[in-house]
Design a protein that fits this description.
By secondary structure, this protein is mainly beta. About 5% of the residues lie in helices and about 30% in strands. It contains five helices and 30 strands. The chain is elongated and about 125 Å long. The N and C termini lie far apart (about 90 Å).
């Protein structure tokens, strides 16, 4: 018999069955059915000294009076914790309960498989009575076929009538509460949320039922069975071994939220789930490292088996767990599509790499040899045209710390081809709580939803997003990393280079993202731009037999005004031989100014 059959019958109205009369014999008078609507109601007090354990009413804690309706949907009666896999769970708190179940009696007519319609289930203990438990062992009572619902209203009457009683292997979770009490959440949408009526020594009682998991037990040879138990690890604002510690100090929560790091070992979909939790306590110093059952088990456990509490799980939602970048999806990157490229757009002839194909930036047309302002030999990479306005990149810091969250990837919201993309990123400092775990947040949408404080800095960084596996070996400063760095883009991993040959700082506008700093470059092409086939497609003029151009940069990284975002000016190729430094380049015939802004970080100066 399913648990639901035993507990659902309580909610029906009393039904009085008609008894057939024998024409030749008058029946002897029998017991009279009791109408639950007019019956006396038992007084219920869950917070008396006799009934309560963790929740005992005093003059200051505001716990409801005897027989006062309780709203279990508010603190301290509901808690938000964590499931074994990091899920966000909610559970009600019905205080400490014994492991031994109490008996509840459901009445069935002979030969029938459903309880007597309208008959209320019967109990013999309420909160404060010796042997009371929210967990009830279901006993099946067989009554005659002519039994009328609610003729029996106490266990004493069952005993007096000597009806057969069969012990089932089912335990149900039905906390007895004052009339009018509410607890609106259930794990399964089909579960009844309202109060159910029952009988207690001829008086009416009210109880909830929690059916998130059918609880079955092995029956002992006599007496009531023990309730199944599962573990929970909790931590308090003050550890239990300190003055004022333990339950009176409350659970540690994330900031001003109700999110604890109390972790349940099982949830209702697990085979071993039980809402009767065996409470173990871990050190609150480990709060920040706990985010699932495994991490909680690795915490410093201060005490085990301190109490058994009735806490039915009523909600399980996907948790905000850290994402392993090694296991995450990778964004598709194409710098040479028509949407992303400007000077470098892939066609059938030019052999530019396909989407997501690694790019070797140490070969043409991606690296150029030019001249410095004083005739120095310089090399710079070519990352194509970029907008003046920077794009935002988000770097996460824990409260009070000056270095980014260890292991957290930076977050961007645009990649090459997206509107607003730039290799030049405006750094935003995002402050996360000290319990934050690296890579829990992997998108700007999540950052926005979390409402973390976001500070616009005055820093700009040059970090071109490229396909995974791409290479660009040269750096101006040998201590700068030349490998790929990973970041997050809309929950996917991206890879980018970092060119830190010069710290770039800017004046912040009142709102929005700042412009990247700009420096000038003078270049010349094999065919001047005003001629057919001229400009970039014709390539830079080089010294005979070499790849040395006479493209001249106005600044190098040691100069105060250096920027790798170059404002391109074009001089006449007829003046190529006379150009050897910035001054001579400025004396050349200038054919065009401000023709493009290109990202060309200098990586060597000789």
């Amino acid at each position: 018999m399913k648990m639901k059959l035993f507990i659902t019958l309580i909610g029906f109205l009393a039904v009085f069955a008609a008894c057939e009369k024998d024409d030749d014999m008058m029946p002897e008078p029998g017991p009279t059915p009791v109408d639950p609507n007019t019956a006396e109601k038992a007084v219920i007090d869950r917070f008396s000294a006799e009934a309560g354990h963790l929740m005992v009413r005093d003059g200051s804690n505001g716990l409801p009076e005897s027989n006062q309706a309780i709203d279990f949907d508010q603190g301290p009666f509901i808690t938000q914790g964590i499931g074994p896999g990091g899920e966000v769970v909610k559970y009600y708190n019905f205080d400490i309960q014994p492991v031994k179940a109490a008996p509840i009696y459901a009445l069935f007519r002979e030969g029938e498989s459903s309880p007597v319609s309208g008959q209320l289930n019967i109990i013999d203990v309420i909160p404060g009575d010796e042997g009371y438990n929210d967990f009830w062992h279901v006993n099946k009572v067989t009554v005659p076929t002519d039994y009328v619902a609610n003729t029996i209203t106490s266990i004493q009457e069952i005993t007096d009538m000597d009806y057969p009683v069969e012990r089932t292997n089912i335990v149900v979770n039905c906390p007895v509460v004052p009339e009018g009490s509410t607890a609106s959440m259930r794990f399964n949408s089909s579960e009844p949320k309202g109060l159910i009526n029952g009988w207690y020594k001829g008086k009416l009682v009210f109880y909830f039922t929690f059916e998130e998991k059918m609880l079955t037990v092995d029956l002992p040879s006599s007496g009531q069975p023990d309730v199944p138990v599962s573990d929970i690890l909790v931590t308090f604002n003050i550890n239990p071994d300190m003055e004022g510690g333990g339950p009176p100090s409350g659970f540690v929560t994330e900031g001003m939220t109700m999110q604890t790091h109390n972790v349940v070992q099982t949830i209702p979909t697990d085979a071993g789930y039980s809402p009767l939790w065996d409470v173990d306590v871990y050190d609150n110093m480990d709060f920040n490292m706990v985010y699932d059952w495994m991490s909680a088990s690795n915490a410093n456990v201060l005490a085990m088996g301190v109490a058994l509490v009735n806490c039915p799980v009523v909600s399980v939602e996907e948790g905000n767990l850290p994402v392993d970048p090694d296991m995450a999806s990778k964004a598709s990157i194409d710098r040479f599509s028509a949407e992303a490229g400007h000077l470098m757009v892939r066609d059938d002839m030019n052999g530019l790499p396909a989407a997501n194909e690694p790019v070797n930036f140490d070969q043409g047309p991606f690296i150029t040899k030019g001249l410095g302002p004083n005739g120095e030999k310089v090399q710079y990479y070519n990352f194509d045209v970029m907008p003046l306005k920077s794009a935002p990149i988000y770097v996460l810091f824990k409260e009070g710390e000056s270095t980014p969250v260890e292991g957290q990837l930076n977050i961007i919201d645009v990649i090459p081809g997206d509107e607003g993309y730039s290799d030049f990123w405006h750094v935003h400092k995002v402050t996360v709580p000290d319990y934050y775990r690296a890579n829990t947040v992997t998108s700007l949408a999540e950052l926005t939803a979390m409402g973390y404080p976001n500070e616009r800095t005055n820093l700009i960084v040059n970090c071109p997003v490229v396909p995974d596996g791409s290479t660009a070996e040269l750096r101006y400063k040998p201590e700068n990393t030349n490998g790929l760095i990973r970041g997050w883009y809309k929950d996917m991993v991206v890879t980018y280079f970092d060119f830190s040959e010069k710290t770039l700082t800017v004046e912040l506008p009142d709102e929005g993202h700042p412009n990247a700093p700009v420096s000038d470059i003078l270049v010349t092409f094999n065919i001047n731009p005003d001629m057919e086939g001229g400009g970039p497609p014709s390539g830079f003029v080089t010294e005979m037999g070499t790849d040395q151009t006479h493209n001249v940069v106005q600044t190098i990284p040691e100069d105060d005004m250096y920027s790798p975002l170059w404002n391109v000016n074009v001089y006449d190729n007829a003046d190529f031989d006379m150009v050897s430094n910035w001054m001579s380049a400025m004396s050349a015939n200038i054919l065009g100014t401000g023709v493009a802004l290109v990202n060309c970080p200098i990586v060597t100066v000789e």
